[in-house]
Amino acid sequence: MNSISKLILLAAVSSLALASCEKAQTTAGANESSANETPASVATPINSNVKSNGKAKNVILFIGDGMGISTITAARIFDGQSKGMSGEDNMLSFEEFPHLSLVKTYNLDAQVADSAGTASAMNTGLKTQISKINVRPDGLFAGCADSAAVQTTLFADMAERAGMSTGIVTTTRLTHATPAAFYGHSPSRYWEHDGDITPDGVQRGCIDLATQMINYSGTGMDGGLEIALGGGRRNFLSKDEGGRRKDGVNLTVNWSKKSNAHTYVGDASALRALDPADKNNVLGLFDKSHLDYEADRENAEQPSLTEMTEFAIKNLEARGTGYYLMVEAGRIDHAHHGSNAYRALSETQELARAVALADKLTNDEDTLILVTADHSHVLTIAGYPALGNPILGLVRSIDRKTGKPSSETSKDADGLPYTTLGYHNGQNPRSDVPQTDNMVQAKDYKQQSAIRRASETHAGEDVALYAKGPGADKVHGVIDQAEIFDIMVEAVGLDK
Ligand SMILES: [Zn+2]
């Protein structure tokens, strides 16, 4: 461990010990009373009196990839308006949780973080460099066969060692950065299948992330992951079988060979044919790459994030062992990179549905539920739109004479209308073509930006962490992302 990460860990311990949780509880109380006209499709009762002297049996960590605070605010309004409300007074399911922190996301070598370094921090309690998965900052090839460097211990390792079950649900490839940090170690997040590994990585015995996932044992007695549902089939199959692997191995077969309880499903109907209470260890790969956006998903072909979450929780609850489940809404990030706010907000809305269901299926007395983001994006909400103005729409302000929303759009200094949502950088820089309501509210519209870039970027401000259940009272104040690991360890009472 270098001195920077030691400092981070020390800071983690002191801030956990010092701060008080009264503020977070007061805020939650105020929120409850203002949520007056919510039609309750996502609202769930809050038990803010959960005694935290009891330990958590289960931990569910929800990660909205790229779900910065502006994304949450915009999704709250988007969700409310989709239910016929004005939108601003709506609440997403996790916004009703009683405990809240701001979280610093930087990587050891990057002011604006990526998903590999941030997911590593949450899963190991140690920050690492950008694009690396669970490797110590002092060894480029740590985690590979010829490296003497000590591997980092994962939260999943500790859970498995304690006899808990473990599971991952994601809308991205299961080998993508965030899910990979649940089970893997890799000097590069891009080494998803064996053909991705660079020659020096091959020489040093580095193993691709798909193989690591299938072979993951977690130092437990029961053979590693119980549940892995998501996309990325191509990284588990050989070229002959329509995949990308060069070694000719079919990793889905290797999964099924692990035990009689190990089952592979390749489509939604095969998943739906399983009874989650049968406690099968299920690998589900529902697309060759990432799953479709919720806005485009065909239900017959792919399960939703909520459906996968429901299956995972019912399966893991049936075991009675306690569990660690990580659920990633991974494509909020991808929609933002494409400057497409519509899909980013719809993905966030789906995450809120999955959280609401998880809360309903679990007991507040024994399950810690955390909802956070790995990093933010450069989405902004601006321009003085009137209350209830469509969140994806052109700005129309309050007419000062009538006190009602103006029928005319607001104009910029060049006389052009503009949208409430915009990106600091991205694919659609501001132009002289006047935008219309039809254009800007379409599903495929790319919001305008100040700086032209092929891909919109992550943002560096803090993200939020929402929590309820045993151990949630440690979530308050400004924390480092690596402290999320400590909060989970302490909540369950695991030995490091
Ligand atoms: Zn990203």
Determine the mean pLDDT: 89
Basic shape: globular
Which ligands, by name, code or SMILES, are bound?
Answer: zinc ion
Instruction: Indicate the CATH class.
Output: Alpha Beta
Specify the structural class: alpha/beta
**Helix coverage percent:** 25-40%
Q: Which band does the percent of strand residues land in?
A: 15-25%
DSSP strand count: 16
Molecular structure report:
- The protein has 496 residues and is α/β, with parallel strands linked by helices.
- The protein has one domain (3-378, 457-492): Alkaline Phosphatase, subunit A (3-Layer(aba) Sandwich), CATH 3.40.720.10.
- The chain has helices at residues 3-18, 22-34, 69-82, 115-124, 155-161, 177-183, 199-203, 209-215, 251-257, 268-272, 305-319, 331-337, 341-361, 437-440, 483-492, and strands spanning 58-64, 99-104, 165-173, 227-231, 262-265, 281-285, 323-329, 367-373, 376-377, 379-381, 421-426, 428-429, 448-452, 458-459, 463-468, 478-480.
- The chain has a ten-stranded mixed beta sheet, sandwiched between helices. Strands 10-11-13-12 form a four-stranded mixed beta sheet.
- Helix 10 links the parallel strand 5 (262-265) and strand 6 (281-285).
- The radius of gyration is 22 Å and the shape is globular.
- The two termini are 15 Å apart.
- Mean pLDDT is 89; it is low at 1-53.
- Bound molecules: zinc ion.
- Zinc ion (ZN) is lined by residues 66, 115, 333, 337, 458.
